[in-house]
Design goal:
GO terms for molecular function: calcium ion binding. The chain has 204 residues and is mainly beta. It folds into two domains: 77 residues, no CATH class; 123 residues, Immunoglobulin-like, CATH 2.60.40.150. The protein is 5% helix and 41% strand. The protein has one helix and eleven strands, in the order βββββαββββββ. Strand 7 and strand 8 form a beta hairpin. The protein starts with 21 loop residues before the first strand and ends with a strand.
């Protein structure tokens, strides 16, 4: 019931330079659970923003009245990575030694918020549900930890996909739960759910 809503919410996205450089934003209106109406869209060219500073942007909504006020800060990703299995970070013995030194008992209180890293190797899935009429699926895997989200590539027409990717997350809360979800890519439609597993960090 507001034409001037204030959300004051913050979202973290992992931006890699080899990905799409535009941040797409949509504003929707909900009448009830069933009816939704698009109130406008806007885009932010990430590459045009200065690094390591907070940019205050007032973005007019395309083809609709109104504008969106937001703060966008672009900073280098630290600790977050996607790599192939053969070149996984933390695999080098000297690098592991540096990590062990960084998180040893005597350095525990140097940076309270720096808890550690989680490295996840996503190898493959077996006997997935067939979501397409062809009896196959186009699966990809999404990993979520806190408000961090990374995903694999899609393996097309396969019920036993092999991804062989390594994901590294910085841990912000030791009570977080790693959620691994497999979806079926469905073109422009929302992906179909194929399965999910949740792993509490405290159980690792």
């Amino acid at each position: 019931k507001s034409a001037n809503p204030q959300w004051r919410e913050q979202f973290d996205f992992h931006y890699f330079s080899d990905r799409k450089d535009m941040l797409d934003i949509e504003v929707w209106r909900k009448d009830n659970k069933k009816h939704e109406e698009l109130l406008g869209t806007c885009q932010v060219d990430i590459t045009a923003l200065p690094m390591k500073q907070t940019n205050c942007l007032e973005l007019p909504l395309e083809k609709h009245p109104g504008s969106l006020l937001m703060l966008v800060a672009v900073a280098p990703c630290t600790g977050v990575s996607i790599s192939d299995l053969c070149v996984c970070p933390l695999g080098d013995p000297s690098e592991r030694q540096q990590i062990a030194q960084r998180y040893c008992i005597k350095n525990s209180f140097r940076d309270i918020k720096d808890i550690g890293f989680l490295q996840v190797k996503v190898l493959k899935a077996v006997d997935l549900l067939a979501a397409d009429f062809s009896g196959k699926s186009d699966p990809f895997c999404v990993l979520e930890l806190g408000n961090d989200s990374l995903q694999t590539h899609t393996v097309y027409k396969n019920l036993n996909p092999e991804w062989n990717k390594v994901f590294t997350f910085p841990i912000k809360d030791i009570h977080d739960v790693l959620e691994v979800t497999v979806f079926d890519e469905d073109g422009d439609k929302p992906p179909d759910f194929l399965g999910k597993v949740a792993i509490p960090l405290l159980s690792v």
